[in-house]
Description:
- The structure is a single chain.
- This protein is α+β, with helices and mostly antiparallel strands.
- The protein is built from three helices and three strands.
- The chain has helices spanning 2-6, 42-52, 77-90, and strands at 21-22, 58-59, 69-72.
- The two termini are 16 Å apart.
Amino acid sequence: xxxxxxxxxxxxxxxxxxxxxxxxxxxxxxxxxxxxxxxxxxxxxxxxxxxxxxxxxxxxxxxxxxxxxxxxxxxxxxxxxxxxxxxxxxx
Length: 91
């Protein structure tokens, strides 16, 4: 997941250290048109990705970190790859 997220333009992510989730910054994606919409917050972005990519991620606002989102990788590699590919295609 870390490698795939790192390849998305506008996304920056640190390698997770023992957790089962990534917490990348999507600040470089915010304000950019995606599927005819322009997300201004990660709350907006998460709703958009759920609608467009059919992928659920948790907005950083829930953790006091606007501009970031939490993505769990407690799934199989195939499912994770598919989810991140959908995000990359949409973003």
